[in-house]
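User
Take a look at the entry that follows and flag anything odd:
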Amino acid sequence: MGSKILVILAISCLSFEIVSAATDKVVCYHGSWSTYRSGNGKFTIDDIDTSLCTHLIYAFVGITTSGTIDLLDSYLAVSNGNLASFSALKSKNSALKTLVAVGGWNEGSVKYSTVAASATLRATFIQDALDLVQTYGFDGFDIDWEYPAQRGGASADVENYVTLIKEFREVFDEHGLLLTAAVSATGSSVDLSYDVPALSQYLDLINVMTYDLHGSWDGVTGQNAPLYASSIDTTDSAKLLNVNASVYGWIERGADPQKLALGLGIYGRTFTLTSSSNTALGAPTSGAGNSGPYTLEAGMLGYNEICELQLEGGWTTEWDDEQKVPYTYKDDQWVGYDNARSIAIKVNYAKSLNLGGVMIWSIETEDFLGLCGTKYPLLNAINSALGIANENIEEPSVDDEVDADTADDANNGTSVNETATDTNSTASDNTASDNGSSDGSSTITCTSAGYVRDPSNCNIYYYCLIVGTTYLPIAQQCSANLYFDETSQTCNWPELVSGC
């Protein structure tokens, strides 16, 4: 009888584990600098709807070469009370978890490589992070090192990063704190930077940055975050630049699906068309699209900027049924982005793979004022698709309608494309001679994986992607008036960049 009871208990526990494993996390990053934006783009902590996210992450703080936390903007973080106000959002939603993120693209990789390599500096970093989290009452800490063993880092970063998060885990477990990380999406970058099984073991959540898969650096139009490959993606490398390949890559390398949060970009990548008569996916471009009034960055627009432009009229919006995302264009401007329909499809995709949840970058580029219809249409679409009860969830506006068949779309990457495509050019086939800039070099030679600056145009740089036994240079571009700094492996002010 006793053995039968044990068997029943074991089955019951297993059943509970299976039932309780759900896609139920909505991780929302907040770029704190958005408070400095003008007009309708100004976003403060008071604008955050705490009912729409399960986890809120404050971005960013940095570190020093001695391993201590650098607040980056101490006035905003402390004097203006942002850290305290952000953590206090939990008073509006008792189930909400708040975290603070360290790193980001502008922080580079070199400092993190140095700190991770030293037991003493790691201990300082972990203690300082713990002090910060406890001082302001956060529930955890998010590491956004972009990226281990890249951008001036060392090959030992892969092992040292594991040691770092293992030691973080040991300390944070003593205090019941969460430990998460933002990570690169594509397989070639993952292989350079991460011991995936170890990250899956020690982290509570792995936020996969499945966006920025195409942009103005390609020299042709492409989707920011295509769910599936396009029929114009004819090379092996091009076929990997999509959300589906990235997610499966993480799982195949040993990640627990329940630890993965699927990244959703709340913005679009923009292009200036070479000819306004060719608006297809893969159409030639002359550079980045125009900057928006709030984000002020050529080559990208926040979702709020996109929908406000569409309200002005004259824009044509197409649905890319192969890649399950929309794009919109007017005159010589072309934008690949996500709307409520494509977001819902991606959420259903995450559910189909039993991922832990989804992550958005970032909340301040949502239509948080509801100027295009309802407030927070994309986050509402996420919550609706996840089946999260929320009295504030409204139906998307007509222009952003979520189709009833989005669940089927999430499991079907073989539909015929409804839009025209240019089969003679692909967003990922470009080499250094096809980078969208007349000033770019045509003689780039990659000798190892990583980043290299264009020798004739300091605004342009390349990611050397390993494809089989050769390297493919993928052209990228700094924001206007910035140069690529080979020392820090970041875009920097020209006067701080040597050799230009």
Q: What stands out?
A: DSSP finds 13 helices and 20 strands in the chain. Confidence is low (pLDDT under 50) at residues 1-20, 391-406, 413-442. The first helix runs from residue 2 to 20. The CA atoms of residues 55 and 444 lie 42 Å apart.
